[in-house]
TrEMBL record:
Family the entry assigns: Belongs to the peptidase C2 family.
Organism in which the protein naturally occurs: Takifugu bimaculatus
Lineage of producing organism: Eukaryota, Metazoa, Chordata, Craniata, Vertebrata
Active site: 81, 251, 283
Pfam families cross-referenced by the UniProt entry: Calpain_III, Peptidase_C2
Protein name per UniProt: Calpain catalytic domain-containing protein
Tree of life domain: Eukaryota
Keyword entries, A-Z: Hydrolase, Protease, Thiol protease
Length: 527
């Protein structure tokens, strides 16, 4: 997979490193210079910034000190808790971080052979459907000799600071990383599919069945390598406000475990099989924890046997990691980013999905039949002008996963743009023999519509009966332009394809027979 990663800015890591070693010089990246333009476009950091190489910060720098851990990381002075939370999640998944940090052993410092060090690193991110290889030099921004952005607890460990620098390069500068979304970063680390779950609107803690179903879903996601993060909504003046229960508003937390914890002591606990659903999180600050039930030193842990507590790694320390009951988690957190690693491997013990990916654009054209930016279904006069994608459900009933992702434009924040469009999609059931674009919304059956949100991606799971369907990816308002990627996952091949033609092509005999003037629709809802 990574041999085919596209070099960002056409910079080839191995060639650049070879040249630096040959010339006995340390790499200086001309595409992301050690200047203020790489730091900010509006708001400078709070102090005089010096760019320092790791060897100028400590005596013996390393990428990793005693391996990689979710406990390695701390937040910097900018609002990048979302990125630190994503890195904490990444550290828990060796199969993922070894993709993001390729050839990690080769990139590690070799203090026995300093002449082979060239001050150059490379990292790989999944950018709009393809893996991109990003080269950076090792000059990092500091104030008073300390790193000011994402950094490790150990002052001689630099993997997180260098990964963040490569990610900032993609975004244009460090300031463009302010106020991001943890789910987006996880997708960029993995190629996963991200779903935003509103815990507030779902009110799961008020409905036991809904809560149990959500827990089982998240347990399955986590056990299959997925990544979960969560946060509490905040007004602008409440960002990173500490609440009386120890949680912080407007702050991203990484979920580091989802477990059914066995209650009781000794052999009796195994026979009774009494469990409680718990969830473990980490605060990117590396401190400030939940103070309620199942917190580090709460009396609830007396219900759990020593062996089970040992397996869970319970520690009484203000290290930023803590447990909560799943009910309290649903009650106090307002939203969760759930990133699924969809299994498309044909050799697997788990369910295998068939994936189809389409790239498209919302474009404007004065000719209605060629216009492709019609807005959502509220705008009935223009809705059908949007791109249309047809797929088939060939089983009696099948689950379909649909992800719509717009192109990331953070790099345009420097010029006052780069905000997400409000996007979503609708799915219509159509005639089994349909081959051409829809032109009449009243005669077709709308079966499901996603939420519309100004997020980078929108995700929907739906169970659909046998039939033919059309997906309409749209912006909320008409005449809004942008690029998108549509991913469709089904249990069996769906034949998903874009509908381009409005009607059959004119043939030599069309003048004799003409086009059909009447179409009959028959819907059988029961028999």
């Amino acid at each position: 997979m990574f041999s085919s990663a596209v070099p960002y800015k056409n910079q080839h890591y191995h060639d650049l490193k070879k040249d630096c070693i040959k010339d006995q010089k340390l790499f200086e990246d001309p595409e992301f210079p050690a200047t203020s333009s790489s730091l900010y476009f509006r708001k400078p950091p709070p102090g005089f910034v010096e760019w320092k190489r790791p060897g100028e910060i400590c005596q013996e720098p390393y990428l990793f000190v005693e391996g990689i851990s979710s406990h390695d990381l701390n937040q910097g002075v900018v609002g990048n808790c979302w990125f630190v939370a994503a890195c904490s999640c990444l550290a828990l998944k060796p199969n993922l971080w070894k993709k993001v940090i390729p050839d990690h052993k080769e990139q590690e410092w070799d203090h026995k052979h300093p002449a082979e060090y060239a001050g150059i690193f490379h990292f790989q991110f999944w950018v709009f459907g393809e893996w991109v290889d990003v080269v950076v030099d090792d000059r990092l921004p500091t104030i008073n000799g300390e790193l000011i952005y994402c950094h490790s607890k150990e002052n001689n460990e630099f993997w997180s600071a260098l990964v963040e620098k490569a990610y900032a390069k993609l975004a244009g500068c460090y300031e463009s990383l302010e106020g991001g979304n943890t789910g987006d970063a996880v997708v960029d680390f993995s190629g996963a599919v991200s779903e935003l779950v509103s815990l507030e609107e779902g009110a799961f803690y008020k409905d036991q069945k809904k809560e149990e179903q959500l827990f089982e879903d998240l347990l399955k996601v986590y056990d299959r390598g997925g990544i979960i993060s969560c946060s509490i909504k905040a007004e602008p003046h409440e960002i990173e406000l500490k609440m009386s229960n120890g949680l912080v508003k407007g702050h991203a937390y990484s979920v580091t475990a989802v477990k059914k914890v066995r209650l009781g002591h000794g052999l009796l606990a195994y026979f009774q099989n009494d469990t409680i659903p718990l969830i473990r999180m980490r605060n990117p600050w590396g401190k400030t924890e939940w103070k309620g039930a199942w917190s580090d030193s709460s009396e609830e842990w007396s219900k759990v046997g020593d062996t089970e507590r040992g397996n869970l790694g319970i520690t009484v320390a203000d290290d930023g990691e803590f447990w909560m009951s799943f009910t309290d988690w649903c009650k106090f957190f307002t939203e969760a980013d759930v990133c699924r690693l969809i299994n498309t491997s044909m050799i697997s013990v788990h369910k295998t999905w068939h994936e189809v990916v389409h790239f498209g654009s919302w474009t404007k054209n004065a000719e209605p039949l060629l216009n492709r930016c019609g807005g959502c279904s509220n705008h009935r006069q223009t809705f059908l002008q949007n791109p249309q994608y047809l797929f088939d459900i060939t089983k009696e009933v099948d689950e379909v996963l649909i992800s719509l992702q717009q192109k990331d434009l953070k790099s345009l924040r420097k010029v006052g743009q780069g905000e997400n469009l409000t996007i979503g999609f609708s799915v219509f059931k159509v005639e089994l023999n349909r081959k051409y674009r829809m032109h009449d919304i009243l005669t077709q059956e709308s079966v499901v519509t996603s939420t519309y949100i100004n997020a980078r991606s929108v995700f929907l799971r739906a169970t659909l009966p046998l039939g033919r369907y059309i997906i309409f990816p749209t912006t909320f308002r008409p005449l809004t332009l942008g690029d998108f990627m549509l991913r469709v996952f089904t249990d069996v091949e769906s034949g998903c394809r874009e509908l381009i033609q409005d009607k059959p092509k004119i043939r030599c005999w069309s003048s004799f027979f003409g086009y059909p003037q009447v179409v009959t629709h028959v819907y059988v809802h029961g028999a």
